[in-house]
Amino acid sequence: MPNSWVDISVDGQVMDAYLTKPNDDERHPAVIVIQEVWGVNSHIQYVTDRMPAAGYVGLAPSMFHREGRMVMGMHEEMETAFARMGACTDAGIVADVKAAVAWLQQQPFVDPDRIGIVGFCFGGRVSFLSACAVPGLKAASVFYGGRILAALGDGPAPIEQVANINCPVLGLFGEDDQNPTPADVDQIEAALKAAGKTYSFHMYPGCGHGFHCNARGSYKPESARDAWGKTMAWFDEHVKA
Question: Among 132, 120, 60, which residue's Cα sits nearest to residue 90?
């Protein structure tokens, strides 16, 4: 399984991204993996490393690149991590994901018409926003995306853009989470249902924020396995098919 770091041009800057791909000469579907607040760290690389075995190219862009290159460790420099997240805007996020999609579409090992996105925590919000605002995505998976009800920077919040969603959305949430709360999830689901969008939401009892991450104390192995299985089945149905 080849893996490497690549540079992607966006807004006159360089966004580094972690790339994994099957070890053959065929074209494959691809999944963009969006980080938690701690960046493209060892856990996000581990998630991306799982893609080739399932027949996908994986690409994890460094979403905080505008604040300088940095691969952060789990739970290290939390104040810095949240400051970097706070500097993000929805306009910049959309530009970054569009650049990642365009880069994948230009690669000879990627089927340009079969690209999905999955994100965790901060990345879950990015995944939801991308479903609303980024063309070329076939499916999105949202792991406990917080602040979907609020904007970053100027413009509408992601939930206010639900009518623009252009791909099926999978949502995976913890019943004990406080961001998003179950009430937040209900509001998001109601908006998707009212807009007639294709979606599937799952709420996991006894799980809080970050239940999928095996490097955090909030990790719930059984729910994580189930949620990951649902994610890959979602992509197999809507991206790979």
Answer: 132
222 burial type by CB count under 10 A (0-12 exposed, 13-18 middle, 19+ buried)? exposed
Assigned superfamily of 3-240? Alpha/Beta hydrolase fold, catalytic domain (3.40.50.1820)
| Distances 119 to 154, 172, 211 between C-alpha atoms, Å | 22, 10, 13
Quote the CA–CA distance of 139 and 13 in Å, as a whole number. Answer: 27
Catalytic site positions = 121, 177, 209
How far is Cα 145 from Cα 141, in angstroms, rounded to an integer?
A: 10
- pLDDT tens per residue, range 30-75: 999 999 988 899 999 999 999 999 999 999 999 999 887 665 554 4
What number of residues does the chain have?
241
Tell me which DSSP letter residue 163 carries.
G
The reported pTM is: 0.95
Q: Report which residue type is found at 125.
A: R
The tokens describing 71, both together, are 């691969």
Q: In what order do the strands lie in the sheet with 169-174?
A: 3-10, 13-20, 57-61, 28-34, 110-120, 139-143, 169-174, 199-204
Which secondary-structure segment (H or E) carries 30? strand 28-34
